[in-house]
Amino acid sequence: MPTRLKRPPFWRPLALTACLLAFQGYLGYSAISGQFGIDNRKDIVADIQVLKDKSAALQAEIDAYRHRSSLMNPKHLDPDLVTERARAMLNVANADDILIMVDPASGEPISGKFRELIDDELRSIIIQDSTL
Predict the structure, then answer these.
(1) What is this structure's pTM?
(2) Tell me: the pLDDT tens digits for 77-97?
(3) Does any domain span residue 114?
(4) What is the C-alpha separation between 105 and 123, in angstroms, rounded?
(5) Which of 13, 67, 89, 101 could join 110 in a cystine, given CB atoms 3.0 to 4.6 angstroms apart?
(6) Record's Pfam families (predicted)?
(7) Residue ranges making up the domain that contains 113
């Protein structure tokens, strides 16, 4: 009985080589100009810096809120804060306080004497006062 050997087709190794070369080309293209490639590295670093800045600002805000909430701790109340809030709620003033009545709508002082003064003059009057 004669045995006939089949010769393997020549196109199978060529097709496999072509597929592997195409996949290697795709990986090379992605490494250079893909979403996370070398060309986009500057954009990624800039985005990271922006997010770090936002994170730092939010952390500072969180720390400020934690500090304010710690001042309201019933076990450790700040006496200055308690007197300030009590005076504000009761509408009373201390003898050493300087009060300037302000119109809520416009934000300007109500008294005619203070309207004529500019901010620098008010500051100089407050700085010159030795009782502060």
Answers:
(1) 0.45
(2) 777 777 888 887 888 887 777
(3) yes
(4) 23
(5) 101
(6) DivIC
(7) 95-132
